[in-house]
Amino acid sequence: RFEFCEPAFVVGNCLEIASDSHQYDRIYCGAGVQKDYENYMKILLKVGGILVMPIEDQLTQILRTGQNTWESKNILAVSFAPLVQPNRNDNGKHDTVGLPPCAVRNLQDLARIYIRRTLRNFINEEMKAKGIAQKAPPKRKRRRCRRRRINTYVFVGNQLIPQPLDSEEDEKMEDDNKEEEDKDHSEALKPEEPPRNLLREKIMSLPLPESLKAYLTYYREK
User: Fold this and answer.
1) Partner residues linked to 153 by β-bridges
2) Where are the domains of the chain?
3) CA-to-CA distance for 65 and 71, rounded, in angstroms?
4) Alpha-carbon distance 146 to 52, whole Å?
5) Residue 177 CB contacts under 8 Å (≥ 6 apart), including other chains
6) Taking Cα atoms as reference points, which of 62, 109, 60, 94 lies closest to residue 80?
7) pLDDT value at position 21?
8) Among 86, 148, 155, 191, which one is most buried in terms of CB atoms within 10 A?
9) Model confidence pLDDT, tens digit, residues 32-86
10) Residues of the chain with pLDDT under 50
11) Which H or E element spans position 26?
12) Which residues have C-beta within 8 Å of that of residue 35, sequence separation ≥ 6?
């Protein structure tokens, strides 16, 4: 459904990123950034990019509006462990961390993305023309019934002793709650039907070779 790129992971200290690294559209830092490294983190942003990081006990969102201009706003007060300080090797220099290069997708991937996007737009237009709203079904809320107890008093000798007693209405409500719980349990045991994948159905109906259909549906071996 989405054209997310495959993630690439690099192990290393983010304060030791190589100086020739490219810039990013979105950056999130999950540890407290010292004030000395604020500009270092901001330089990693592209113009128009957004950086979210905790700094001075405030979760801060920074938008880069130009080559030398940024807009900052505090989101909420937080408490994060600080970033690990860079380590120096035997020569007294930092071990730089190299990030994956920004590679352009090959023509096959771009064609697959474009075909899927075109089919998805057709499906959305058809559903809109039929008046079908694309909304997730709301979750069912269980009713909670309050039990009402009736206090009765019993005379024992010369003493008046209060004694709680369930009314007939309470018993009926208990039975209804049990029936509702049994119904919910039986519904939970029923196997859920998988949601209808209109995009996959559209692709499979095309007059294309099976191998190409499998590639368009992204069920392929790498």
Assistant:
1) 162
2) 7-103, 104-132+208-221
3) 7
4) 45
5) 145
6) 60
7) 84
8) 86
9) 999 889 999 999 999 999 999 999 889 999 999 998 999 999 998 988 999 988 8
10) 150, 221-222
11) strand 24-28
12) 55, 56
Which tokens go with 5? 């790129």
- Joined tokens for residue 81: 């462990």
Place of tokens 């294309």: 208
Structure tokens at 141: 């809320």
Residue 116, number of CB atoms within 10 A of its CB: 19
Whether the CB-CB separation of 63 and 70 falls below 8 Å is answered with yes
How high is the pLDDT of residue 145?
53
Q: Which CATH superfamily is domain 7-103 in?
A: Vaccinia Virus protein VP39 (3.40.50.150)
Helical spans, DSSP H, in 70-209: 107-129, 168-189, 198-204
